[in-house]
Amino acid sequence: MEQSWRWFGPDDVVPLKAIRQAGASGVVTSLHHIPYGEVWPIVEIERRKAQIAAPSLGLRWNVVESLPIHERIKLGEGDLSALFDHYRQSMRNLAASGVHTVCYNCMPVIDWTRTELHHRLPGGGTALRFNAHEFAAFDCFMLERPGAQEDHPPEVVSRAHAWFLDASEGQKSTLLASIMAGLPGAYDRYDIPSLRRMLDRYRDITAEGLRENFGRFLREVMPLAEELGLRFAVHPDDPPRPLMGLPRVVSCGDDISFILSAADVPANGLTLCSGSLGAGVHNDVPAIARHFADRIHFVHLRNVSKEADGSFMEADHLGGDTDMLSLIEVLLREQGRRLEAGIETWRLPFRPDHGHELLDDVGKGSFPGYSAIGRLKGLAELRGVMLATGRLLNLPV
Predict the structure, then answer these.
(1) Which of 94, 222, 247, 340 is the most exposed place for a label (fewest CB within 10 A)?
(2) Which sequence spans correspond to the domains of the chain?
(3) pTM to 2 decimals?
């Protein structure tokens, strides 16, 4: 599998040379400075590509993560023709620059969601964590969303109310910032009033309505993706459940089936994120990977440990609840199938997702979940499993 690494551009505290030292060759990045809905100019794409492809590093920009869907497209709001035209032009510009794999998501308003960005681990490292009662405290008592208490188990609401009564203003501000951290580089951040206004725009959008709007997006862009030879890879919801009354429609195998059938062409594929799917008690991640293997275009490998109340924490890459060894076997077998079928792009790009903050990285200010040493540890472990599995089963690595 093609060893890759998420990089957030020149402002990332983890430099390109560190990616090379980690043993990766592919760089996964985006043009975070361009607002959602605007065209990605070729000059900007080529500038980023040249930064990555410096001769001394031997790196290449292999995956875009992400080319965002504008919120109005998710809402189906107003005349969307200009937004679709801009999106398609960005696709043409990426293809012209030789960047052919695009990871994206359809999570409304907020992206991945955690309540703690620096949960303390034994020995002093930190991890990302989602505490169900803290999220409920935000939803029910800070945001004061109508009907919110009905969306959380009574025992979680009780703990949430106790947390809210005891929390300082600083703790509440930290919780808001943690929930808003989401996708590093995202263009919008919300305070409580602006988040309420944004949620109000979604007041009449059901899961069926969001699926319909997503289906329209797929029908608008996938014919061009096929024509250009682009591979689009939808990222699952993180966590895979409704949040703040917002529907989420990429949370399980049935959702993925709907999306892939909405535009049933090879370009329309999946980012297999073992952590996002693994946070759902209903998801068997190796089984999902096996079922959709031929439509996986990109892979995020990480692990989470789940708790009975809906909380979860980022685990070691080979720890947690997902059987990572079985998952990697599924992916290597699919690679072997593609190679035997003569598919030129048979090797799957993957990256070690969300690492713990460890050792000298503690306090350096890296993007949450994207410190260097924790991901280096994960990449090394995953690389070892892949090499051993490939050798034992005579599969291409």
Answers:
(1) 340
(2) 2-113+206-393, 127-181
(3) 0.95
